[in-house]
Amino acid sequence: MIALQCRTGVFTRLMVLAAVLCLGASCATKPARYQDLASSAQLRVNGDNADGRVPFNTAIEPSALKAYTFVTLDPVRIYRGKDGQFGTLSEDAKNDLARHAEVRFRAELARRGLLAAAVGPRTLRLKITLTGVETNVPVLGTSTKVTPVGFALSGLRSVRDKEGRFTGAVIYAGELFDAASGRLVYAFVTRQYPNALNIPAGILPLDAALAGLDRGATVTASSLQSMMSGASR
Q1: Which pTM was predicted?
Q2: Quick check: 136 pLDDT over 50?
């Protein structure tokens, strides 16, 4: 029993040490201005990116979306450009994430009364493209939340809306087009991840990416609702 406790204590200290060391390094995959996106030439570094979630976007007038009432959603696609950031993720895993994203975005838009079944007047066309995934590091992601020091570190990051150490994330592009003319209205690239204290999102390799898509769908739909004329319905 004493030997087991000793080994457990050593393991815990190693996990905490790894977390502390990682605090001084960049452990996250940084999104890129993906060259094969339709909006690539118009994407710029986002100067208002305090939380680090939207590093690139296009210029937009605050009132630009007031001309629209509904949104159609294209099938979520997987980015195939050479600058994609999926690592060794399997095609099956990519497809699972794309299906999950489509279900969640469709549900969030519908819940707010924004989703249109077909193109009509005053309609935006939303294209979501998965461009990268960072998987959870097994054991480490959870250990740095449940150990005393790890929980404290995660708590600090949670308050600051920073991602947890060794926890994965999903990167995707959102592009909004005028459904009638095809003109680009707005585009962004975002890295989404769960709250640093979300322990269930750190267990399986893709749990954080799935949680990131859930959050991204909610935030995107909520933002559109507040900026479009449909918000007053």
Answers
A1: 0.77
A2: yes
